[in-house]
Write a structure and sequence with these properties.
With about 375 residues, this protein is mainly alpha-helical. The protein has 16 helices and 6 strands.
C-alpha cells in the first residue's frame, strides 16, 4: 500500500504549513512511521542542533567579545596580550563591520566566503587567512554546558575560496651581510646583533630579557633563556613551551660579552640610557633599519639574524638534537627526548666552539652604550 507522512512546518511571519511526503509502499503502519521519522530526521527537523540555531539570538560580535575574554583568562597555553591586541584589531577593523550584527547561527561557509571577498582586494593573502581563522575560532568558541560546540561547521575551503599564500618575503643575510651589520652598528646594538647572529639562535625578546646576575654564567659561555622582554614588560614565559633552554657561546663571542658587561653585576644586559628596557621598536628604528639602509641590505626585522644562524648551524654539521635544543624548537623525533643535552655542557661548548660565529667581528670596543651615527662606508 502506498503510504504518506505529514508534518507541520513553521513559516516565519506566516501560519504553519502542512507538508506531505511520499513514503513508498509500506507493509505495516510501524514501517511507515519509521520511514517518516527517518525522513524528518534527515531534514534536521526537531533536532537539538536545529532548535539551538533557530532560537539563538547571540550575535557574532557578542560571541567575539566572549572569545577574547576567554583568551585572556585561560590557564592552558596562555596567550600574550600583544597577540590578543592583534586579534582585537582584526575583529574591530575588519570582521565586526561585516559580521558583527549577524546571528552567530547564520555564520557559515557562505558568509565567510563573502567576508573573504570583502577583504581580498585590500589585505594580503596571509592576513586574509589569519582573519578567516579568527572568524572560525569565534564560531567554534560557542559551547554548551558539556563543552560541545553549539554551532558545529564543516568548513569548505574550496567554496570559501580564500586566496592562496604565495612565497612569503623572509629577509635573511649572508656571512658578509651580518659582518657589515655588526661593523656599522654602534655600542650595545653591536653586542645585541652579535648575540642574535652568533649563538642560539635567540629571539630578540629573549636577548632583551637577559639579566646579568641571573642568566649569564660566570665564564660568559652559557645563557639561561627563561624570560622575554616585550613592550616595556618582562614576561616570565617564552614564545613556546620548548623555549626555556640554555644557549652556549663560542669563546670569541664570550670574550666580547664579558667586555661589554664590564663591571656591571646586575640588571638588564641591554637597556636605554635611563636604565629602562630597550624596546624592539626603538631598536629597529634607531639602529637596525638605518644600518640596513646604509649598507644597501634588504630591510627586515630581527628574524634576519635568526634565519642566518639557523642556516649556519645547518651548514656546519650541527647535530639535529643540539640544533633543536639551542633554537628552542620541539623535538622532531621521539628519540631526541632521550638526549639530555641540558646535562652535558662540555659537549655543547665543544660544538659551540667548532661551529663558531659564521661572520667576522670588528676589533672595536663593544663596552659602551652609544647612539647610531650616520657615516660613509669606506670602499
Amino acid at each position: 500500500m502506498q503510504s504518506y507522512g505529514r508534518y507541520w512546518k513553521d513559516v516565519p511571519g506566516s501560519i504553519p504549513r502542512r507538508v506531505v511526503i511520499s513514503l513508498g509502499v509500506c507493509l505495516t503502519r510501524s514501517i511507515a512511521e519509521r520511514k517518516c521519522a527517518d525522513h524528518i530526521r534527515k531534514l534536521g527537523i526537531g533536532s537539538e542542533r536545529r532548535f539551538i540555531e533557530s532560537t539563538s539570538t547571540a550575535t557574532f560580535k557578542e560571541q567575539g567579545e566572549a572569545w577574547l575574554r576567554s583568551l585572556a583568562n585561560r590557564k592552558r597555553n596562555p596567550i600574550e596580550q600583544t597577540t590578543i591586541d592583534n586579534r582585537r584589531y582584526a575583529l574591530d577593523k575588519w570582521i565586526y563591520p561585516f559580521l558583527g550584527e549577524v546571528y552567530l547561527a547564520d555564520v557559515n561557509n557562505l558568509t565567510v566566503k563573502e567576508l573573504v571577498e570583502h577583504m581580498a582586494g585590500t589585505l594580503s593573502s596571509s592576513t586574509v587567512r589569519d582573519y578567516v581563522n579568527i572568524t572560525k575560532a569565534v564560531v567554534a568558541s560557542a559551547i554548551d554546558e558539556n563543552g560541545e560546540e553549539k554551532f558545529p561547521r564543516k568548513w569548505n575551503p574550496e567554496f570559501i575560496d580564500a586566496p592562496l599564500i604565495d612565497r612569503q618575503r623572509q629577509p635573511s643575510s649572508t656571512s658578509e651581510g651580518v659582518s657589515d651589520i655588526v661593523l656599522f652598528a654602534i655600542g650595545q646594538y653591536r653586542m645585541l646583533y652579535a648575540l642574535l647572529a652568533g649563538c642560539g639562535p635567540l629571539r630578540a625578546g629573549e636577548a632583551l630579557g637577559l639579566e646579568i646576575d641571573k642568566h649569564i654564567s660566570r665564564d660568559f659561555r652559557t645563557l639561561q633563556i627563561v624570560q622575554k622582554a616585550k613592550s616595556g614588560r618582562i614576561f616570565p614565559y617564552l614564545k613556546t613551551k620548548n623555549g626555556e633552554r640554555q644557549v652556549d657561546l663560542c669563546s670569541q663571542l664570550a670574550e666580547i660579552l664579558c667586555e661589554f658587561v664590564g663591571k656591571r653585576t646586575s640588571g638588564l644586559l641591554f637597556h636605554s640610557s635611563s636604565g629602562a628596557q630597550l624596546l624592539q621598536s626603538n631598536t629597529l628604528s634607531d639602529s637596525l633599519h638605518p644600518v640596513l639602509d646604509f649598507i644597501a641590505h634588504e630591510r627586515g626585522g630581527f628574524n634576519v639574524f635568526r634565519r642566518f644562524r639557523l642556516t649556519h648551524l645547518e651548514t656546519s654539521g650541527c647535530p639535529d638534537a643540539l640544533k633543536h635544543f639551542w633554537s628552542g624548537h620541539a623535538h622532531k623525533h621521539v628519540s631526541e627526548r632521550y638526549v639530555k643535552l641540558a646535562q652535558d655542557r662540555d659537549y655543547r661548548l665543544s660544538w659551540a666552539e667548532k661551529i663558531g660565529l659564521g661572520f667576522r667581528l670588528p676589533g672595536a670596543s663593544n663596552g659602551q652604550l652609544g647612539q647610531l651615527v650616520q657615516f660613509r662606508k669606506v670602499v
